[in-house]
Amino acid sequence: MLQIFFPLLFILMDLALGANHAHGQEKIRIAWAGASPANAAVWVLQEKKLMQKYGVEPEIISINASPIVLQALLAGEIDISAISVAALVADAAVPARACASSR
After folding, report:
1. CA dihedral (31, 32, 37, 38) positive or negative
2. pLDDT tens, position by position, for the chain (103 residues)?
3. Alpha-carbon torsion 60, 63, 67, 71, what sign?
4. CB contact at 8 A, 30 and 60
5. Region 2-101: CATH code
6. 8 Å CB contact between 63 and 32
């Protein structure tokens, strides 16, 4: 769990402290899928208000499926995602099997 928590935390903090030093509060949209310990970094950011003290207001969005989070990320609707790669790989394999069995 710590292997996922700290890298995600550092990435989010790097984005918050990056080259965008605006005078007003920046807004960042963070989406997560599935309730698991792997997403603990997102909850810690929200509960401890770690990003607000650096002038970044996070909007935490819960989406029920990793593929939908990935689609939102690719479409530019969210800035950061916390998703399971295993879930994406498993979901990607389902349509291929369904197409192969429908012949």
Report:
1. negative
2. 556 666 766 676 676 666 555 555 689 999 988 777 778 888 888 899 988 888 889 999 998 888 888 889 889 999 988 877 776 666 665 554 443 433 3
3. negative
4. yes
5. 3.40.190
6. yes
State the alpha helices, DSSP H only, in 18-63.
40-48
What are the strands of the beta sheet with 80-82, ordered from one edge? 56-63, 26-33, 80-82
> What does DSSP assign to residue 52?
G
Would the pTM of this model clear 0.70, i.e. be above it?
A: no
CB 84 within 8 A of CB 54: no
CA distance 103 to 93: 17
